[in-house]
Amino acid sequence: MIDLDGWVCPAPLRDYPTIVMGHGGGGKLSAELVEHIFLPAFQNGTLAQLGDSALLEVGAARLAFSTDSFVVRPLFFPGGTIGDLAVNGTINDLAMSGAQPLYLSAGFILEEGLPITQLAAIAERMGAAARNAGVTLVTGDTKVVDRGHGDGVYITTSGIGVVPAGLRIAPDQARPGDVVLVSGEIGLHGMAIMSVREGLEFGTPLMSDCAPLHDLVATMLAANPNIHALRDPTRGGLAATLNEIARASGVGVRIIEAAVPIPAEVRAACEMLGLDPFYVANEGKLVAFVAREAGEAVLAAMRAHPLGRNATIIGEVVAEHPGMVVARTGIGGTRVVDTLVGEQLPRIC
Fold this sequence. Notes:
It comes from Oscillochloris trichoides DG-6. It holds the Pfam family AIRS_C. Belongs to the HypE family. Residues 52-163 form the PurM-like N-terminal domain. By secondary structure, the chain is of the alpha+beta class. The chain folds into two domains: 57-166, CATH 3.30.1330.10; 179-336, PurM-like C-terminal domain (Phosphoribosyl-aminoimidazole Synthetase, Chain A, domain 2, Alpha-Beta Complex). It is 31% helix and 24% strand. The protein contains ten helices and 14 strands. It has helices at residues 11-14, 28-42, 45-48, 82-95, 116-133, 188-197, 214-223, 237-249, 264-273, 295-303, and strands at residues 54-58, 61-70, 76-77, 80-81, 100-111, 136-145, 153-162, 179-182, 227-231, 252-256, 287-290, 312-318, 325-328, 334-336. It has a seven-stranded mixed beta sheet with strand order 9-11-8-12-10-13-14. It has a five-stranded mixed beta sheet with strand order 1-2-7-5-6, covered by helices on one side. Helix 4 packs parallel to helix 5 (116-133), helix 4 (82-95) runs parallel beside helix 7 and helix 7 (214-223) packs across helix 10 (295-303). The radius of gyration is 20 Å and the shape is globular.
């Protein structure tokens, strides 16, 4: 029997004796699972870095290795499918360490009763996404579960890429004085999922921003390699990403709320549903922490790339309030941008 009294953990974890949906949302509950269950169980220095991918020294090569699981509902949504999402999501995790993605694996958990035509369409989209990104899917596995126990299909993908020599991009590398950039408009993926899941119409069709970001990252590094941290703001959105890097680096982050690019249709949909766009997931955007002297060069390179044409500087890194993100509001006030306990929208990736 597990001795709960022997745990060294905050009370919120003990308040949930079973898994709840919020544990998968990328917020505080997810962080507690990692900190108090997985890190102690698997304890090693590589895992403890908590990057989007692990950096491994293999002979003379520096490899990035990442894995991710996808349980999005519905399987098909405006701008993509669970297949595109699985490929691009893992590519993006590798790219956030500056790696050039090379190879992917895929594991499929299929529910009895899933139409073969749907599976074929998902596999075709996966293959096309991999080919378009220049990566090769080289191995995989398939399992089937009973009807009513799988929600169609779940996919787990792992990826391997090569990191250029001398490059060090990680969540703990942000420094006071850095500028914070975002590559484009936020909130599109989460709200596109919400629109089809709930049958909502917002006047303007919402399309997911699902896309591979490794070429954008390579363009940024070619302009100036003085990039300290990168993250794609998926679960938990922009807010979770900024908080994760602030905590990992022991710095404060100060952003200008009005500078964050939010499409009018996303803003309107969030207002209708009572959601905050800062916490809505993205699947084709990145956040970059860049040395101030390199900021304009990196920004110009981003804007010259199709996936970064709406890039902008949204804030800066400061020494004050380490581990905290604050935003200057449109009326001149300041608010704390915290991490949610769970997530506003479950099952979005």
